[in-house]
Amino acid sequence: MSEIQGTVEFSVELHKFYNVDLFQRGYYQIRVTLKVSSRIPHRLSASIAGQTESSSLHSACVHDSTVHSRVFQILYRNEEVPINDAVVFRVHLLLGGERMEDALSEVDFQLKVDLHFTDSEQQLRDVAGAPMVSSRTLGLHFHPRNGLHHQVP
Predict the structure, then answer these.
(1) CA dist., res. 126 & res. 146, Å (int)
(2) Domains in the chain, start-ordered, CATH in brackets?
(3) What integer pLDDT is reported at residue 152 of this predicted model?
(4) Per its UniProt record, what Pfam families does this chain match (predicted)?
(5) Which of 77, 87, 89, 134 could crosslink 22 through cysteines, CB 3.0-4.6 Å?
(6) What is the 3 state secondary structure string of 88-106?
């Protein structure tokens, strides 16, 4: 049985953050991770579209295949903050050549989105420093012929 390497690419755009109900004033950051089932051998890479090599607290970065958005400050209720970070996840999969389409449609892709908060800007410099205040896991049902096109507010 021959094996084929397939590459699946997911793009996630963090356009803006809209504060519906202010819980606490402070600094926020969104962290996005793509999880792939361990049943199929794979290699995952994450990058930020259009980013130069400079990395500061106020720019997005990648740490252990988790993308950290830029840090943004929320001061008011109903405040809208532009983020404008685009993330590209590339998954290189090792698939069986005979049932490639079936094997690819059975891969379990999950997109995990976490919101972290702190009232101290210094605490966000440490990767594990800011506690998570909210988390969502989205199951991505990917089909090789139909693809995946979603917009989630």
Answers:
(1) 41
(2) 3-52+59-149 (2.60.40)
(3) 59
(4) DUF3657 (PF12394)
(5) 77
(6) EEEEEEEEECCCHHHHHHC
